[in-house]
């Protein structure tokens, strides 16, 4: 399965029956509002539950610039998050420096390549905390 538009389409159509489990990890759908366009866009992202919140990583594979969805949520932290068939309004924020080490470990436990991505860039890759609105 493709990780992109087709992934989102199948995930949404099947309430995550197709697309939640992906390459040994779990995927959710994050919907943000474009900071320039105002258009809502959905992105499949590896996630982990963390207490009452959910975590995702703005890695963009270790690129020097962050993903557009991250820039969008910086401008408007009100997002929609979908885990399997459950869709809910949420607020997204960047983990604080105090929170990040433990959260980073939780995310690299599910997707070890995040450590490789961080080594590829001087940019500090953020962990995003998604909490129900």
From TrEMBL:
Stretches of the chain forming a coiled coil according to its record: none
Tell me, what's a Pfam family for it? F420H2_quin_red
Q: Which domain of life is it from?
A: Bacteria
Q: Which reaction does it catalyse?
A: oxidized coenzyme F420-(gamma-L-Glu)(n) + a quinol + H(+) = reduced coenzyme F420-(gamma-L-Glu)(n) + a quinone
**Which InterPro entries did the record assign?**
F420H2_quin_Rdtase, Split_barrel_FMN-bd
* Signal peptide extent: none
Among NCBIfam families, the record links this protein to: hi_GC_TIGR00026 (TIGR00026)
> What family does the Swiss-Prot or TrEMBL record give for this protein?
Belongs to the F420H(2)-dependent quinone reductase family.
Write down what this protein is called. Answer: Nitroreductase family deazaflavin-dependent oxidoreductase
């Amino acid at each position: 399965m493709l990780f992109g538009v087709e992934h989102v389409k199948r995930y949404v159509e099947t309430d995550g029956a197709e697309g939640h489990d992906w390459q040994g990890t779990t995927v959710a759908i994050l919907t943000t509002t474009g900071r320039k366009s105002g258009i809502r866009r959905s992105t499949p992202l590896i996630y982990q539950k963390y207490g009452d919140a959910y975590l995702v990583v703005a890695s963009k594979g270790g690129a020097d610039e962050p993903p557009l969805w991250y820039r969008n949520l910086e401008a408007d932290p009100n997002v929609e998050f979908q885990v399997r068939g459950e869709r809910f309004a949420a607020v997204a924020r960047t983990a604080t420096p105090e929170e990040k080490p433990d959260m980073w470990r939780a995310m690299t436990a599910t997707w070890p390549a995040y450590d490789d991505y961080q080594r590829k860039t001087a940019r500090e890759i953020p962990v995003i905390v998604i909490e129900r609105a």
